[in-house]
User: What shape does this take?
Amino acid sequence: MNIFYRPKYLSETTQFINELKARNPQMANGQVEGRALLWNKTLDRDAQSDFGAARVAQQPYVYQTAAK
Assistant: This one.
């Protein structure tokens, strides 16, 4: 017996997620598809540069509305 042996700890949350994925193997595909809907987008570099050029500089003190 190894004196440094410790059983691997799994939290209740990790156990729940592992069981959920075991019961629903198609869930991983759904996660990939959902991520693709929201995050995997191609950027239009010309539009991005136009947005940057049209940006208005912020005032040094944003809560001051008018000069006195």
